[in-house]
């Protein structure tokens, strides 16, 4: 029984669907896991960062999934048990946001108070439950179609009660360790989602926006201090880009160490302003110079009356902008404060303070005693971002009215500016373009807002632990390896160094409720860490109570007795739920319901051997994992991490369904195959944490440039192997039992072994970005060099032994390549592999029901084999130079040339090329190849300093010595330098690597001998391009043969299909054509035979007619 014939016209997508059916039929994934358990393989732990199932998978998901699949497949093939369990992120804003959109379409309010009163938390959460797995089937289908092996049946969901219970346990451990506290802080706040966000989330979505920039006046009140400074009646000039915060203004702030000026307007002396000296240009900008005209002397527009340090302004009072909170004047408000955070790079150096809408404002006002941490707040904005009733008074100025209550704050900006401008309190306003944080879920602008939240304390000790776990030590050791490393050592290190307390509470509904029960007066706090503890303490529950759900609608009504006795009201749960990032960070414990179950399995799987997600998770999942792990266990949560960049649309914009700026992933897979999509994604900058502009043409190119040549080589093998009933004899490792002595056979096997060893080394280091390019290069070496150069041998045109040797070699290499490619592109390698091993005995170790059940090869090349790889590389280098030279002079490869001269300054490289000169002749179609020991007269070597190598040596004046010395070197001097390995230039010793050795060609002299040259740093090749009559006849013969082969291909013939060839035309060497075709060539058409095709070959004025007939 021979190999199954390979269809020439098949699509890769069709192949892949056949493989998917086979995997399903044979339960290959389950079988692989079963065997790993039976063999008691060591555990390799992988954590899957869970996606939300409220949207369909996109290319970013496919990329991350592909990386995860490659690595986990690889380690499974390396003898590990790799548990691959899919996870779903089912809580939080992404889910609630979808429900809020539905509620808004129903004409109802999504304000939290309205959801509670009109919809009810139970109904709201049920709606969330109903949609949370909306696209789970599509996810499973897409993930499987992409070739990813992962367990969907035993998945975990963050809404599972077991998962939520472990989250409670994690929180209780942190609480008991003193890492949890409640405090009022100014936090990033999403008005659309009506909840605070963490600083981590606020950094996820910055966008360029235009906001109003306003210069306001704050008239200075009479006081002894103002009089002493001479600024009574003057005006502070403030600046803001958030006019909606001006009604909440309580103070101004200046920098005590910087200089401020009292200036007077010359045109209107009644205008006197106090402003930072270096920012006077904001009020009186220098006029722009007109093009081509000299700058005219300027009349001064202001005069400086006095200067003083900012500290001198401390305590100076001013007139408030609005009448809303004037009772706060008793606490020292509406005065000048001093703090170093005020800078001189923008604004006026006088900063408006709204302490409950700005983090620095809050800190400064708290430090100066204007507000108290547990006191009343000037925060007239509700959770939807609208002004509340504390600013309900409608203000009037003339005919102008200002009404704020019930309106969205940013929508009020224009009217606030207009109202202040009418009162003369605005000097100027304009639009200011800057980068501004947006809600990562709703994509609406965030505001800063003060409110009580629950925090994880990132104290110095925890921060130091995290920094240590993230560091790369001097000896190269580390707790975590990030690929690429710069993300770890720069971006993530910087984030950790500046880490602040983590707000883990959200004022929402659909999430894991915070397990905190608190007394009415806030003095008694109890944290629940399990369902058993919940039953123990809650008055409404007994030991027999089933606690199958612990969402808000199930636990909000539960109370526990106040430990101080029955005289105190029962303790109730705080209303907040956990930030879903806290759930994600708890995932290592919660996915296994630790510590309530699976303790041994947890210890085996923590920390993870590997995780992978996008660059945007640097401040997200990667950070939360580390915070919790460092706090609970003082351990890194994972050992190895691959970070991918973002997949953007072809125009560089974010992929958007509404813009339709990217092709549907499943359509791309249907057209080009999942293997092509996978290889396109992972052979791109995106695996180095850079961005990729997705282009479907790139996927198509991978299919045509990588998989099509490989498929054709495989098909060519099967065709020729079946002609002679070829059955390979392979060792247990899959190598030929009787290795060939042929140079190229030995070379491709050696190159294959080198590739396999390289792949193991790089995959062990998680460097996919080096592995895949090398794999693609090898496929090119196999298809465009080895197979092409050995086609005649495989067809049996040289000898039967040569045919067996070449087929055995190609078969072994294809089998090894299938195994090596299996983790990366799982479909085609499996399809090819099953056919390639079908003729082997069933008991052969290399024969399995799927390539994915094999171990990854442990082969490596010997020193002798690596030397052969270098030898052939030099030959290929020469061939490439020769091909480029033919293109440059316009002489096609079908035209034979008389002579080629090759020279190199390396004796080793010259020896390599001399050994393979016959291959050079065949590849470049030259009759003679010369490798003279003495260089041609038209060639010399020159030397130039390699400044890139020399710059680190800081040679100073010595660099000129090197430059001058290189310029004086003769050809013979350079040859001696290369032999010695170093040279001295007047006391400065340099190595060969620090000097660029290049060829110089005397073109007139070379061309006078009919020679045209081309070179690179290692070789110079020269071709005699004179084409005489004999060479022209030979060229015609080769072109006629090529025409015949083209007709055979067009007629879809296989090598075993016999044809009659008829050639007619002027004088040509039909004897040579006969030899090349290995069959008789006719000059007249045979009678009564089917014509399969015909063509014409035009050479100058001569026309040749070529036809083939079924024999």
Automatic annotation (TrEMBL):
<dbReference type="InterPro" id="IPR014729">
    <property type="entry name" value="Rossmann-like_a/b/a_fold"/>
</dbReference>
<dbReference type="InterPro" id="IPR002300">
    <property type="entry name" value="aa-tRNA-synth_Ia"/>
</dbReference>
<keyword id="KW-0030">Aminoacyl-tRNA synthetase</keyword>
<dbReference type="Pfam" id="PF00133">
    <property type="entry name" value="tRNA-synt_1"/>
</dbReference>
<feature type="domain" description="Methionyl/Valyl/Leucyl/Isoleucyl-tRNA synthetase anticodon-binding">
    <location>
        <begin position="745"/>
        <end position="899"/>
    </location>
</feature>
<dbReference type="Pfam" id="PF19302">
    <property type="entry name" value="DUF5915"/>
</dbReference>
<comment type="similarity">
    <text>Belongs to the class-I aminoacyl-tRNA synthetase family.</text>
</comment>
<dbReference type="GO" id="GO:0002161">
    <property type="term" value="F:aminoacyl-tRNA deacylase activity"/>
</dbReference>
<dbReference type="InterPro" id="IPR001412">
    <property type="entry name" value="aa-tRNA-synth_I_CS"/>
</dbReference>
<dbReference type="InterPro" id="IPR002301">
    <property type="entry name" value="Ile-tRNA-ligase"/>
</dbReference>
<keyword id="KW-0436">Ligase</keyword>
<dbReference type="GO" id="GO:0006428">
    <property type="term" value="P:isoleucyl-tRNA aminoacylation"/>
</dbReference>
<dbReference type="Pfam" id="PF08264">
    <property type="entry name" value="Anticodon_1"/>
</dbReference>
<dbReference type="GO" id="GO:0004822">
    <property type="term" value="F:isoleucine-tRNA ligase activity"/>
</dbReference>
<keyword id="KW-0648">Protein biosynthesis</keyword>
<keyword id="KW-0547">Nucleotide-binding</keyword>
<dbReference type="InterPro" id="IPR009080">
    <property type="entry name" value="tRNAsynth_Ia_anticodon-bd"/>
</dbReference>
<dbReference type="InterPro" id="IPR013155">
    <property type="entry name" value="M/V/L/I-tRNA-synth_anticd-bd"/>
</dbReference>
<dbReference type="InterPro" id="IPR023586">
    <property type="entry name" value="Ile-tRNA-ligase_type2"/>
</dbReference>
<dbReference type="GO" id="GO:0000049">
    <property type="term" value="F:tRNA binding"/>
</dbReference>
<feature type="domain" description="Aminoacyl-tRNA synthetase class Ia">
    <location>
        <begin position="19"/>
        <end position="692"/>
    </location>
</feature>
<dbReference type="GO" id="GO:0005524">
    <property type="term" value="F:ATP binding"/>
</dbReference>
<dbReference type="InterPro" id="IPR009008">
    <property type="entry name" value="Val/Leu/Ile-tRNA-synth_edit"/>
</dbReference>
<dbReference type="InterPro" id="IPR033709">
    <property type="entry name" value="Anticodon_Ile_ABEc"/>
</dbReference>
<keyword id="KW-0067">ATP-binding</keyword>
<protein>
    <recommendedName>
        <fullName>isoleucine--tRNA ligase</fullName>
        <ecNumber>6.1.1.5</ecNumber>
    </recommendedName>
</protein>
